[in-house]
């Protein structure tokens, strides 16, 4: 133990090796407080070389390493287990280069996502990854969980925005795959192994990311639709009329909006209440008549009986007000309404209405009075299928039903050829679900990769992959 701490202090400096309980506290508890960890120390290296030295030291002493970015994850992926060293990437926060001719930026893993968005804007470009925690989450964590967010419909997940990586491997060697090429067909695409791996194969220390022309026009509408099936038809109509101009298509239920407005404030922009809404946004890098295209979409949808009412933002202030309705729907039921069981799932886009219909019915049959709030990125099939406790229940009574409700939701997702994790990762929370739903051959292949790159099993142990004994 002494040799480990002395070594860490030599590498990162006395003040950046935390061992006191109070100083380590924020690194041990994840945002939702579902998990609490324990660690020998928290190391805060300043650069890739220091990361490599910390990892090499831990490998030599057989000490597990748990990488951590902004600690904003929803599944406990950054929570350390006893006897581990937390490696916090927050000091790796430099933007190394922005190439506006190549439309790329090279950044370190500890950069806060919102800072990268601003740097892209300052360079006259656009970095489209955008999600609720962007003011505190860090790009290394976004890549490690393959984060999605509101713009996946047009731009893809974090994986699709990454061109190259710099990674510290479990033995402390540095793999320099930090290229900015659009095309490289020289063998295996190694960089993709580390995206979505949640630090179990190595630690991402830097990334080359895609930039895009900055939008010069945005048109945003808050649309009341008859039901999720109508929302699906509206999505297809939007694509038909506008091509790839739609960058966001968010589905919001009335019950979630009501709870959000009650707890977080705000106002409904439409005159009457409706059961379902879509937040639709079009964008273009040139002033290209998007308002006329949006109006054509809505007029056609209204004539077909898909749309009941709509409000179009006439200013940036109004646009932000409409987007805030998405925020309150997502955040208004998090703590104020008692117990909450969250599901981050994805199904084929065509199956979203079926998932909502059957999933809601099954959950309501299982617990009368339960409040089912399915919302999210309908454009890519990713729903946050959240369950709020019945009124009058104690939270602990509701949490005791977590496994039963997970089984109802995830069994249906599996039946519909979906995924039990769409953008939040696996972490500790869903390891058992991986064993239940992942095909045996897929688990075997992932286990082989893990053993090949991390034969000592020291990189973020216990996350993503279930123990071999659990694998079917």
Short key terms for the protein model shown above:
472 residues, five-stranded antiparallel beta sheet, Uridine Diphospho-n-acetylenolpyruvylglucosamine Reductase, domain 2, Uridine Diphospho-n-acetylenolpyruvylglucosamine Reductase, domain 3, flavoprotein, 5 domains, alpha+beta, eight-stranded antiparallel beta sheet, Alpha-Beta Plaits
Task: Write structural notes for this entry.
GO terms for molecular function: catalytic activity; FAD binding. This is FAD-binding oxidoreductase. Its cofactor is FAD. Keywords: FAD, Flavoprotein. 36% of the residues lie in helices and 21% in strands. The chain has 472 residues and is α+β, with helices and mostly antiparallel strands. It folds into 5 domains: 2-88, Uridine Diphospho-n-acetylenolpyruvylglucosamine Reductase, domain 2, CATH 3.30.43.10; 103-213, Uridine Diphospho-n-acetylenolpyruvylglucosamine Reductase, domain 3 (2-Layer Sandwich), CATH 3.30.465.10; 217-331, Alpha-Beta Plaits (2-Layer Sandwich); 340-415, Alpha-Beta Plaits; 431-470. Strands 12, 13, 14, 15, 16, 17, 18 and 19 form an 8-stranded antiparallel sheet that branches. The chain is globular and about 70 Å long. The two termini are 37 Å apart. The model has no long low-confidence stretch (mean pLDDT 94).
């Amino acid at each position: 133990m002494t040799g480990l701490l002395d070594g860490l202090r030599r590498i990162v400096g006395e003040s950046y090796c935390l061992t006191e309980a109070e100083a380590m506290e924020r690194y041990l508890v994840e945002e939702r407080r579902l998990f609490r960890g324990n660690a020998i120390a928290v190391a805060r290296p300043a650069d890739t070389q220091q990361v490599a030295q910390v990892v090499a030291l831990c490998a030599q002493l057989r000490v597990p390493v748990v990488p951590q970015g902004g600690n904003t994850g929803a599944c406990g992926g950054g929570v350390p287990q006893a006897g581990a060293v937390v490696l916090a990437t927050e000091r790796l926060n430099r933007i190394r280069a922005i190439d506006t001719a190549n439309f790329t930026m090279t950044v370190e893993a500890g950069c806060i996502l919102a800072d990268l968005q601003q740097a892209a804007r300052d360079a006259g470009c656009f970095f489209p990854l955008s999600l609720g925690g962007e003011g505190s989450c860090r790009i290394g964590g976004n890549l490690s969980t393959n984060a999605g967010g509101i713009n996946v419909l047009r731009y893809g997940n974090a994986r699709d925005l990454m061109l190259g990586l710099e990674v510290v491997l479990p033995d402390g060697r540095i793999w320099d795959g930090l290229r900015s090429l659009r095309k490289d067909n020289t063998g295996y695409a190694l960089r993709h192994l580390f995206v979505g791996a949640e630090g179990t194969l190595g630690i991402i220390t830097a990334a080359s990311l895609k930039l895009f022309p900055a939008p010069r026009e945005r048109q945003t509408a808050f649309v009341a639709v008859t039901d999720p099936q109508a929302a699906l038809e509206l999505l297809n109509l939007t694509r038909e009329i506008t091509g790839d101009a739609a960058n966001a298509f968010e589905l919001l239920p009335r019950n979630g909006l009501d709870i959000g407005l009650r707890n977080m404030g705000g106002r409904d922009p439409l005159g009457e209440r409706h059961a379902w809404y879509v937040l639709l946004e079009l964008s273009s890098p040139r002033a290209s008549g998007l308002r006329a295209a949006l109006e054509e979409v809505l007029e056609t949808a209204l004539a077909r009986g898909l749309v009941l009412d709509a409000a179009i933002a006439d200013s940036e202030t109004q646009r932000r007000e409409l987007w805030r309705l998405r925020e309150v729907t997502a955040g208004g039921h998090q703590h104020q309404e008692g117990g909450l069981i969250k599901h981050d799932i994805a199904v084929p886009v065509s199956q979203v209405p079926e998932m909502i219909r059957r999933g809601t019915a099954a959950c309501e049959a299982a617990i009368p009075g339960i409040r089912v709030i399915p919302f999210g990125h309908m454009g890519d099939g990713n729903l946050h299928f959240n369950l709020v406790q019945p009124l009058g229940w104690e939270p602990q009574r509701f949490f005791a039903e977590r496994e039963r409700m997970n089984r109802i939701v995830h069994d249906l997702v599996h039946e519909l050829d979906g995924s039990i994790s769409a953008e939040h990762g696996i972490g500790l929370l869903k390891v058992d679900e991986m064993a239940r739903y992942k095909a045996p051959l897929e688990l075997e292949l992932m286990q082989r990769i893990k053993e090949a790159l991390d034969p000592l099993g020291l990189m973020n142990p216990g996350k993503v992959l279930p123990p071999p004994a659990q694998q079917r």
